[in-house]
What we know:
By secondary structure, the chain is of the alpha/beta class. 30% of the residues lie in helices and 19% in strands. It contains seven helices and nine strands. The longest helix is centred in the first third of the chain and has 18 residues.
Amino acid sequence: MRLLIVAGPPSAGKTAVVRQLLRQFAGENRTAYLKIDVVQAFEAEELAAEFGIPTRKVFSGDLCPDHTGILVLADALTWAGEEKADLLIVESAGLCLRCTPYTTQSLGIVVLPAISGTNAPLKMAPMIAFADVAVVTKTDLVSQAEKEVFREAIRRVTPGIDIIETNAIEGTGLRYLFRAVESCPEIDDPAAIMLRGAPPLGVCTICAGKKEIGWRNHFGVIRTLDAADELYRGD
């Protein structure tokens, strides 16, 4: 089985890219799909009805959605194996723009909308830095100059990353992504899969539900206005 992890900000066109992948590969591969979201999602039902594939969805609720994806991924691999899937596509929520949900033994795909602004790649650098492929969507809505500046901003984060520009609804230019999927190696040892990068810290009293404002009211990893870096307060 091959593993694809699709990340990116909300409304970037992740599901549109997944649809194009399914149109290309679902006929020749037994494909399974997992959607990670926060409160509600409809993609799993839509893709199951459209392509006749096994799908699952998980809502993170009070947890970070990408942390949730990390927690459930081993079970998802077992489920996809039971479904005899040749290809498992995991679509993350990617809300904080800081998480890096990509793992070893997978193809990491980050989906970025060209209309998000020329500095957007720099603002979500960790999500890009550990990806294998950057798919830039909605390129039909910006000028050629804007596309070039956006592309250079991605390369400032990761100089060697493969960049694919597309109108994901129509699927233009995605043959390069299809080739990357075809050349992605199968999972060799599921028990040895690891995250490629460290996710954000989630160890503070705000995470535990404490509502007071101001760092003096909190413990764990904290941040003050004037501090250059995070501090640890408490036991």
